[in-house]
Task: inverse folding
């Protein structure tokens, strides 16, 4: 048991160290060839902004050769556009946004990670606010975030299907199921049943388990050198919040809606005033879910990358060593945040489900 414990923690620390080292190498590439603190600060800001964005290819890292050529490590993803018909081609044609992509006589260029229709020379017309004026086709591409979501979905399906099969022959799960079972029981006994009730919790358990493990695994992958940042994409957190909202709305009983539009025990004039406020409260709940998850994960990445960037501003053994130690300590804290955000999202979803199906017993005064 002690050997397994030490091995797991050694692997965990190795992953966190590799994340910090890879980030250092990326920032060092940006630092090379620039003189002056202002140039370094600008490059660090640009790198952090780039790190937070989704991409049309799965780039793991990049490096500069001795000849000055910039090399990327990764693989392309399919670009799917609707531009007077379906256009499908590889993102390698963009060469990480540096070249113009040609497909069936049409030319496309990337500007701020978005695809625009252009001419053969890649001309992007801009307004006074640096907004592109070119025609923008509908983009249904398999981006890095979408690809990661598919992989995580397949991974979760594989883990839980294997775990379910073991229960057919044994009362105890095997392999990874032994680690998953205590977490599943905790979500059932300490989140679902207390907040939803023993009679109705089962209908919500598949979603609660899915959203918890999805957010947790995605957040953990965001701490690795893979550069995956799915939950700091507000579109993803919005989708998760909307699923919770729709489940709450379409499974709610009449008591739930009665307490929103015609509160019992409240004078009629006050009911008319409070009804729109209560209705607005149902919309604020998913909004808070979306913002909480997005803001916490995004802030963690920004702070971590900023602290690593300080090493290239201080440029001395004392400041750089302190920045590295602080970045490593913050990486350990991010492990807690990864699980905590999954727990909070699942807990609040269970609370909303519980309020939607709660049976109220009262007399209308």
Result:
């Amino acid at each position: 048991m002690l050997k397994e414990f030490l091995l797991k923690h050694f692997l965990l620390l190795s992953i966190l160290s590799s994340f910090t080292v890879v980030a250092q190498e990326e920032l060092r590439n940006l630092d090379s060839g620039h003189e002056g603190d202002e140039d370094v600060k600008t490059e660090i800001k640009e790198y952090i902004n780039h790190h937070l964005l989704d991409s049309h290819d799965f780039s793991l890292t990049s490096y500069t050769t001795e000849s000055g050529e910039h090399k990327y490590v990764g693989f392309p993803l399919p670009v799917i556009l609707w531009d007077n018909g379906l256009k499908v081609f590889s993102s390698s044609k963009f060469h990480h946004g540096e070249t113009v992509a040609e497909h069936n006589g049409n030319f496309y260029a990337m500007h701020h990670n978005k695809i625009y229709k252009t001419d053969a020379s890649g001309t992007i017309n801009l307004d006074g606010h640096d907004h592109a004026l070119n025609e923008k086709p509908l983009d249904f591409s398999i981006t890095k975030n979408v690809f990661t979501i598919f992989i995580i979905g397949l991974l979760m399906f594989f883990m839980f299907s294997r775990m379910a099969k073991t229960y057919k022959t044994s009362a105890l799960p095997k392999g990874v199921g032994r680690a998953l079972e205590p977490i599943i029981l905790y979500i059932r006994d300490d989140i679902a049943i207390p907040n939803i009730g023993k009679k109705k919790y089962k209908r919500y358990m598949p979603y609660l388990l899915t959203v918890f493990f999805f957010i947790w695994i995605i957040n953990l992958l965001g701490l690795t050198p893979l550069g995956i940042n799915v939950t700091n994409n507000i579109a993803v957190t919005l989708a998760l919040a909307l699923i919770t909202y729709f489940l709450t709305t379409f499974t709610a009983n009449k008591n739930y809606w009665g307490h929103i539009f015609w509160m019992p025990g409240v004078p009629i004039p006050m009911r008319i005033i409070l009804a729109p406020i209560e209705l607005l409260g149902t919309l604020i709940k998913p909004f808070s879910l979306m913002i909480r998850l997005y803001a916490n994960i995004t802030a963690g990445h920004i702070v971590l990358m900023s602290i690593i960037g300080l090493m290239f501003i201080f440029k001395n053994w004392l400041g750089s060593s302190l920045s590295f130690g602080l970045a490593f300590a913050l990486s350990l804290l991010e492990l807690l945040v990864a699980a905590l955000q999954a727990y909070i999202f699942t807990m609040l979803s269970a609370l909303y489900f519980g309020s939607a199906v709660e049976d109220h017993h009262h007399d209308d005064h």
